[in-house]
Amino acid sequence: MKYSRFAAILLCLACAACATRTAPVSLRDAAMQTLPLRAPGAARELPGRSYRDASADYAYDLYLPAAPAAPPRLILLVHGGAPAASGLRGAPLMRSWATQIVARTGAAVAAIGWDGHLRDTAQIGTAYAHLRAHAGEYGIDAARPCVITFSAGVAAVVPYALRDKALR
Q: Coil, strand or helix: which one is 41?
């Protein structure tokens, strides 16, 4: 009985969402849009920092709270199954998520570019090691990272993060 009520509620919500759509939007356009949340607070942005061989492809964008009282905790924001060269880490969607996280948690967020299509998870470890080595320079607490990922990143990144002693 409770499952049928739950299903009915979901169906109503889905119908209401469909009824409010005014124009069709492609999946790619929908995915690349910013989150429809309130404007984030002030954050410092350090874009295009390289973690491997000064390569623009293997880079991260760092988002820091404007005036933290203490070194903010580090969150690694890892995209799904796209190549590092795609520039997805710098997409409006990733910037939107990162600035919203900084505004709401006071944490530092590193949006990491990696070869998700190849499932080269060792790049995430390399990026994290680089961030830990530069934590003092950035004024962040990288000792207890949090990893946020989505899409194809979940299947690759979560098991890697749980196995890697530094990330775990």
A: coil
